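Sat 14:20. Reprocessing the chain from the morning session after the first attempt stalled halfway. Input below, unchanged.
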Amino acid sequence: NSAGTPLSGLTSLSLGAGEIPQVDRRYDLAISLEVAEHLGPELAERFVALLTGLSDQVLFSAAVPGQGGPRHLNEQWQSYWAGLFDRQGYALFDMVRPRIWHDDRMPYWYRQNTFLYVRRGTDALAHVERHAASTPAGPLDLVHPVLFKKRIRPRGSAWSRLMSRFTSRAS
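Finished this time. Tokens:
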């Protein structure tokens, strides 16, 4: 992009051949959406270290087990990634999912997997904590109903007959 366009401040990193690049620049925000699951498990910790080295704030999502997708090598629960960020000194904020969970214009995997991580002890943390106070805390390891419906057994199975009993009672 040419200078002055809205995207002129963005930098893209290539992660080809399973290599984690060295970057000597810092940014206001690092963004990695649905990338980490495409890297082998042996690279997970180094990838999170790369992201946390780029910024005090990281917007992050990665596929959960069973989500599926082309070339997914490392589908992990959200709590797995939260642990890796925690070891780098980052606090997790689940401020994005509650705001986008029901937005059908957005693919379910972003609605299910997106978190903000912020380095502890920074001005950014104090700022985010003020805004996060209004966000209700919930479980990390969630599966969006869209994914769940894609993965349950076909209609007519014992599973769907059992589930229909519960859903018909709830109506």
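The chain has a mean pLDDT of 83.
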